[in-house]
Write a structure and sequence with these properties.
Elements (H helix, E strand, L loop, with lengths): L2 H12 L1 H10 L10 H6 L4 H12 L18
């Protein structure tokens, strides 16, 4: 996963403002109690970090690849 995909997923799931809080302040238990920001700056795979966030914060597995997009019908 690219960092841009990680950013898109976390902002889509939590909103841009809360995504920043999670990235800077959440210690991920399964990844040495480091924050996502620390892990990403150390070169950790963004996909691994995203999955750890999902597991720890209870994101349903069906949204781990993003929220379903609603198709709009032309009127």
């Amino acid at each position: 996963m690219r960092l841009s995909q990680f950013t898109d997923l976390i902002e889509d799931e939590f909103g841009a403002d809360f995504a920043k809080v999670i990235t800077h302040d959440t210690s991920l238990i399964s990844l040495s109690d480091k924050t996502p920001k620390q892990l990403l700056s150390e070169g950790e795979d963004p996909g691994l970090v995203w999955r750890a966030i999902c597991e720890q914060l209870g994101v349903p597995k069906e949204r781990w690849h993003g929220k379903p997009k609603i198709k709009r019908h032309a009127e």
